[in-house]
């Protein structure tokens, strides 16, 4: 069973190396991290509640795999917050 917790990186400590200060995206990244962790916790609760129903447990495993990818994505952005700035320039996503 996978353990619950955070990505191991403090999203509020992101620093923008060009300005030497705090990244303007630090709060957004912190919220993304909290949301991903909430999804993960809800998936584990669903799996416990499934009571051995194989179809539910299989789908929860898929949810957890996708959640793990989200954790990796968020931790990458936390480590390199300038990457997030590129998204606004490219496609106006934010």
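^ Assign residues to that structure.
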């Amino acid at each position: 069973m996978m353990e619950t917790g955070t990505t191991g990186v403090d999203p509020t400590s992101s620093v923008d190396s060009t300005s030497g200060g705090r990244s303007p995206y630090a709060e957004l990244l912190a919220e993304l991290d909290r949301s991903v962790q909430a999804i993960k916790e809800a998936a584990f609760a669903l799996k416990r509640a499934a009571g051995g129903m194989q179809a539910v447990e299989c789908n929860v495993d898929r949810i957890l795999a996708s959640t793990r990818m989200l954790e990796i994505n968020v931790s990458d952005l936390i480590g390199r917050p300038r990457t997030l700035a590129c998204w606004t320039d490219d496609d106006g996503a934010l």
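Helices lie at 26-49, 54-79, 82-91.
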